[in-house]
Amino acid sequence: MSDQVSVLFVCLGNICRSPSAEGVFRHLVAEQEMTDNVRIDSCGTGNWHIGKAPDARAIAAAERRGIAIDDLRARQFRAEDLDSFDYILVMDRQNLADIREIWHQNGGTEPRLFLEFGQADLAEVPDPYFGGEDGFEHVLDLIQEASQGLLDDIRGRLA
């Protein structure tokens, strides 16, 4: 059994939900002194924002919770990611369908909906891009709750 687990968060453009998830989870893993055990990254299915920082509203919402994501830069999902990560966690069903199509052709780690690790009645993390500030706060609430469930799952895997 490896003593390191890798996690990839995926959304559409990699400027709102997945970098928020990367930042929140990175923060949680650091608090639990597990940074040597967990490698974390994020990406998008689309290519529009490659190389760009997260949305300013996502950065501000995360900062209000003491989480820095302004250092992250968007990248696009690659087929090789299926072999490079133990968890490939997508934010919504459309992202899941897009990544599963690549997975069916290439194999590797099967992608899953991130909120499977949470207690919320929602299956998808809603995209806050076209909404207001409260949408980013809601996304962070969902991500923080599911992140705890994910960390519990990883602890079991590393045990």
Overview of this structure, please?
This protein has helices at residues 17-31, 56-63, 81-84, 93-106, 133-158, and strands at residues 5-11, 38-44, 87-90, 112-113. The protein is an alpha/beta fold and 159 residues long. The chain has one domain (5-151): 3-Layer(aba) Sandwich (Rossmann fold), CATH 3.40.50.2300. A four-stranded parallel beta sheet has the order 2-1-3-4. The longest helix is centred in the C-terminal third of the chain and has 26 residues, at 133-158.
What's the topology here?
Blueprint: E1 5-11, H1 17-31, E2 38-44, H2 56-63, H3 81-84, E3 87-90, H4 93-106, E4 112-113, H5 133-158
Parallel strand pairs: 1-2, 1-3, 3-4
Q: Return the average pLDDT rounded to an integer.
A: 96
Helix content range: 40-55%
Placed side by side, the strands forming the largest sheet appear as 2-1-3-4
Radius of gyration: 14 Å
> Total number of helical segments?
5
* Beta-strand share of residues: 5-15%
CATH homologous superfamily identity: Response regulator
User: Structural class of the secondary elements?
Assistant: alpha/beta
Total strands: 4
Number of domains: 1
How many angstroms separate the termini?
9 Å
Uncertain stretches of 5 or more adjacent residues: none
The secondary-structure element order is EHEHHEHEH
Give the biggest beta sheet: 4 strands, parallel
The CATH class turns out to be Alpha Beta
Concise description?
This protein has 159 residues and is an alpha/beta fold. Helices cover 42% and strands 13% of the residues. β1, α1 and β2 form a beta-alpha-beta unit.
